[in-house]
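Lab meeting, action items carried over

1. Structure of the two-component assembly. Owner: GW. Status: complete.
Input record:
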Amino acid sequence: MAVTILIPTALRVFAGVQAEVTVEGDTAGRAIEAFADKFPDIRQHLFDENNALRSFVNVYIGEKNIKTVNGLDTPVRDGDALMLVPAIAGGTGAI
Amino acid sequence: MSVIPRKRLVELSAQEISRYSRHLLLPEVSIEGQKRLKAAKVLIVGVGGLGSPLALYLAAAGVGTIGLVDYDVVEESNLQRQIIHGTKDVGRPKTASARDCIRGLNPNVDVIAHNTNLTSQNALDILHNYDVVVDGTDNYQTRYLVNDACVLLQIPNVYGSIFQFEGQATVFNAENGPCYRCLYPAPPPPGLVPSCAEGGVVGVLPGIVGCIQACETIKLIVGGGAGLSGRLLLFDAWRMKFRELKLEKDPECPICGEHPTIEELIDYEQFCGLRQDEEPVDNITAVDLKKRLDQGDELQLIDVREMHERAVFSFEGAKPIPFGQIAQRTAELNPSVEAVFICKVGKRSAHAIRVLREAGYTGKMLNLQDGTNAWARDVDTSLPQY
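Predicted assembly:
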């Protein structure tokens, strides 16, 4: 099942400066996993040590946050777009 | 429903009626809405990119009392987007510069300058005097502090944040809606996400997002309209695209959920991981690096800056491997030769060293302390600091 990952600017440098990437997967979790396999530098920004989605990253399918559906087990359909929505703060932060 | 109760409405003078006539012609605002604006007290946290248009539009709209919280002074690099400050204000406290500008625009506004950092100790005292709080901060610890204080005091929190070309806006803690913790239960660890200082921001972006926040603030005061509570507005200035996402209250939220565990303000620096020592890296100063290069030491210089930063100036003799590709391109490094990692201020380069260590790279690695800015300051002053 081909799914498009929509990548916000804050994370693009870790994904070959691309705004969208198409991956295979039948759940939100598997699609994001495939995305992180493709771009190893992004993995630490999406998953914590226990392979759970980091709490400063939300994933939306359409208007819906997967947290309010079935988390990483939320099924995806062919042609769905998964949007990553990380926390942004602006300014002169940590790095 | 307005956040200003009817009993607080104050009369408008004849001069004010003519000044705000374009509001009074709108049935949605009318004289009653304008009286509510005059009675309203709005606190703007952060008088930077977001705070500038916010303060200007709220002052122009006739908000009676505007509080400003900021501890910074105006720097030259702020002026590209922080339009409330001018060239003559460089070096002045931002609250003083903004207060002068607001008074020039609308002398009817009572400006209260809080020239301080917002902390767990002073936040409730400062915030409780206001009807609406607008979050124009630039860091996670203040965002969580503002959120929690607003939830505890039951004040709506008009949120905006920006990065490069993208912005987010919503209204938290209004109409029994979600709060910031419902959306992001915890912040990124320091070092994971780049800031505007290294990531950059297009100057008009905070202008647009700040104006959205100003509009939401005016609607909360006037009452009516469809507010952003429960909706997260995403804006991409480069593609000129708005998107709207659903934002739901999290029943498990530790502060606004059904069984709150946070009942007072906490230590936000600790919560945001700022007290944890990051794994140390070996540093080399710009002057020492110059010495070692001059004496012909064998070193591999790795420039982890982005291509557009190298266009400002390229670091002679350095191999470019952008920060975001380090893990993928480890094989391009030679572990038998000492490597020096270079970025703009020495933070991405330090993080790159940690990433390589974790990936099992065994070669000796040094971090150019304070980055190319130190090189431009201490070694080659013909180069710019940016």
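2. GW to write a short summary for the group page. Key points so far: Chain A touches chain B at residues 8-10, 12-17, 39-42, 44-45, 54-56, 58, 60, 63-65, 67-68, 83, 85-95 (CB under 8 Å). Chain A has one domain: 2-86.
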